[in-house]
Design brief:
Number of helices: 12
CATH superfamily of the largest domain: Bordetella uptake gene, domain 1
Strand content: 15-25%
CATH topology of the largest domain: D-Maltodextrin-Binding Protein, domain 2
Order of helices and strands: HEHEHEHHEEHEHEHEHEEHHEH
Low-confidence stretches: 1-30
Radius of gyration: 21 Å
Distance between the termini: 39 Å
Number of strands: 11
Largest sheet: 6 strands, mixed
Mean pLDDT: 88
Number of domains: 2
Amino acid sequence: MKSLSFRLTRAGGLVLLGTAFANASVHAQDGTFPSQTVTLIVSAAAGGTTDIAARMISDPLSKALGKSVIVDNRPGGSGAIAAAAVKRAKPDGHTLLVQYSGYQVITPHLMKGSFDPIKDFAPVANLIVAPQVVVVRPDLPVKTLAELSSYAKANPGKLNYASSGNGSLQHVTGEMIKQLAGIDIAHVPYKGTGPALTDLLGGNVDMTFTTAPPLLGHIKAGKLRALAVTGSTALPSLPDVPPTSKVKGFEKLDASSWFAVYAPAGTPKPVIDKLSSEISKIMQTAEFKSKAEAQGAYAVYMNPQELADYTSREFQTWGKFVADAKISAE
């Protein structure tokens, strides 16, 4: 009986899935998309860069589509909770994922079976790219990455860095710095950037690396010292902080985060193209670009094919690094 029940349930699921595809295709062909509210499921809590990116497009996208576009925050599971919700959603364009790159291309390597970033989603558009900023507590006697490297070598095993958790992009960035500089610094994982930053501000840890939004106020107030921006160019909001591309020995330290929109796999191409086109128009506005810059980020549009290719390359690149560095989620 159990075997028969499974076969019947599976068959029913296939029938329903076929119906969803058929309905989605009809809507795409007759021009009625969207026919209801569009939900942007965000893989992080409100206030973070992923959430900010989603809210930067929600209102203008609502106006462009003529339907409400709402933000639904579903943090947890290193992005797997939000990804699972969109993966299971009807592929008709009304449920979309706004995802942080660290979750999209690193989490699947650490949480096997959680989701497949290539097969489970249809890329829509990339929104912003935000490099990470290397920051230290202000009483640490270093002002550059070179000085940090020298100090760590002179004090092996005495420095540590905070991350938002095992397997996070901050964790990976820390391991990259260790490898490039040949230094020994301990990893202290936290449950999120907020707790990690709180302990850094309290002097309980020595450094961290994350995107600019939660750091800018503390840097300008002198509560944190910025050593470098992980990327090829300086941030307009931190013009005196050098990019790692110009720091000897750290030229390969490019650990920027990107924030993109995905639909469930199987979403009709006309729907994907419409969404991507409208997002592109929004991103070309001065308002969007200025908001991105204020967050220490750049507006970087990628169309569906470009995002698909980029996601695939990043998935392979970070997968190799995770394996080589023996990084785990434990």
